[in-house]
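Workshop exercise sheet. Pairs work together: one partner reads the sequence aloud, the other fills in the structure field after running the prediction. Swap roles for the next sheet.
Pair: D.N. / O.F.
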Amino acid sequence: MEERETLEQLLGIMREHDLDRIKVKVGDAVYELVRRQTQGSALFNGAVTPAPGGQSTAIAPPNVKRVLAPLTGVFYRQPAPDVEAFVSEGERVEVGQVLCVLEAMKLFNEIQSDYAGTVVRILPGNAELVTQGEELFWIQP
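Structure field:
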């Protein structure tokens, strides 16, 4: 079964049973999907506020630069499961430094920083499906 078909089936199960999170192992692959808040609550100053259904939403404070997903794919913090993450919260990064990879259509796309500064927040969880335009990192110059 293709990965896209698997993801679509898992999304269907999540919708059918109104799940916020699902984690399934299919062969050697582990799929973990997490429902994101789509209609925001009133937020400010980077606060995290519980939304209806127990989900959380966050808005970047005005002093940070936001790194957005250039495409829809699965977010990975490290290049392989048994190695360290590209970056961690609190770590300094430089322009052009690889922050993560997004897997889409079995291709791994390196996402590089457009900013120099300190990573103050990594928003998606490892192996989480993210959509184009979704916030991935907050970097404070």
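Discussion prompt: The chain has a mean pLDDT of 80. What would you look at next?
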